[in-house]
């Protein structure tokens, strides 16, 4: 009798657990009855740290039900982590600044091809890896800024003008370890050859107002403070300075004029912030949906508005501030070349003594 009572009791408990599980699945699903397991998730490693990015991730989850798990870190450290984790990595996607870094990730075998007609339609060939291992999301131009009261803009129309005697000891620029400068030099290698790029880099070193230090904003503040007369920086940094809550940054930026270099010749250097599908992805279908979402007009408009970046989708206009700076001619390069020339650029910088 006791055994019979025990068996009946166990059956009752199992029934209760079964009903509870069904109830939980029902609550997790949406009105269509699709379970959260069916919607799934993606794991994103990103070197970007903007509130707007998280807002976009939340929108994607709201529209698709796919959860975006975000792991933030420094760009190069995330590449090292992906490399260390290998096929066991839980990462599905990797976002970083600069085509050079994306190329490094590709060369290490950390990325795989993104097969999507939507992505190919939204983002032009030149802002995508030749094998679609990475996709550009936003653009930034590497411009020359100058002090409006101390410099005649006619004297500084090209990157080459930075090496002229006019700007002896007046150039402020970041260090050779900075990927933006490495990619700028890599673009000049593609355009002018290794010899021409070496000559330019040597001229930059000769004209430096001081040893490189700080980021792009520090170069602009240095010009305003009289440490130098001209600086090299990315456009979105200047946009952020002009709209900063810090008075020092606003005042410094307002003293600067803007030059988009080489408009009569080879065009201004443009780089990207981009995304890659990891070779280790366990959620490939959902990850590609996420990439497609970030290349849409709506997402691209939000990128542009919040961070003063140029949209990679040509159907989306930049912000009013960026439009006020005028249209400009870009270098005619596929950005894959920036990564391919990165090692040579670093060797040149070491050779000419660019600290």
Which descriptors would you attach to this protein?
about 350 residues; alpha/beta; D-Maltodextrin-Binding Protein, domain 2; 10-stranded mixed β-sheet; 15 helices; globular; disordered N terminus; metal-binding; ion transport; signal
Mean pLDDT score, rounded?
90
Percent helix range: 40-55%
Order of helices and strands: HHEHEHEHEHEEHHEHHEEHHEHHH
Query: How many strand segments?
Result: 10
Total domain count? 2
- Intertermini distance: 87 Å
Under the CATH scheme, which class of the largest domain?
Answer: Alpha Beta
Low-confidence parts? 1-38
Shape from CA axes?
globular
What is the level-2 CATH architecture name of the largest domain? 3-Layer(aba) Sandwich
* CATH fold topology of the largest domain: D-Maltodextrin-Binding Protein, domain 2
Beta-strand percent range: 15-25%
Helix count, DSSP H or I runs of 4 or more residues: 15
What is the structural class? alpha/beta
What is the assigned CATH homologous superfamily of the largest domain? Periplasmic binding protein-like II
Tell me about the largest β-sheet.
10 strands, mixed
- What gyration radius follows from the Cα positions, in whole Å? 25 Å
Organism: Virgibacillus salinus
GO molecular function, one term: metal ion binding
Binding site for Fe cation: 49, 236-237
Keywords: Ion transport, Iron, Iron transport, Metal-binding, Signal, Transport
